[in-house]
Amino acid sequence: MLWLTGDTDADALLASQPLALLIGMVLDQQIPMERAFKAPFDLKERLGGALDPAVIAAMPPDDLAEIFGAKPALHRFPRSMAGRVQEVCGAVMEHYDGDAAAIWTTAADGKELLANVKGLPGFGDQKARIFVALLGKQFDVQPDGWDTAAGVYGEAGSYRSVADIDSPEALSKVRQFKQQVKAEARAKLPNPG
To answer: Of 100, 116, 131, which residue is a domain's last?
Structure first.
């Protein structure tokens, strides 16, 4: 069972609609993970009950930004993230005939899967590797070499990212790991005194 939002309906949407999962990953930055991955459910409701990449890609940008910014906003940066989601939906239409799952179902191996994900707007190396790990660990999308393509995020039991969260306990472990990494980074900063 997928456990990314703490909301049964939102998690069910992520598990059943590849575009929802992709949008959640796009939004997973600078806001709590649960909020980012619940946003596709809220967006679907605001769009009248469907997430359609063709509709989202074709919307006037200001209209989509208004939907993202309606209270409660879908993201801390509603205008820029509405634009990013619209760009991703455009890429899904242009390169995958509107089928978000084709990003991973057409990949012959992990290397191609990573390249497909990195080819999407807003997916740098780290985010792409985390998404590959999420697909492999929680959706059994495991073409040859997927774990290598995911890098450290593909390691079993690593609790480094959203890819490892399948329960409240796992969420706690991931948060502890991230806090430790931040503390180590702060410790390496030069002392201004």
So the answer is: 100
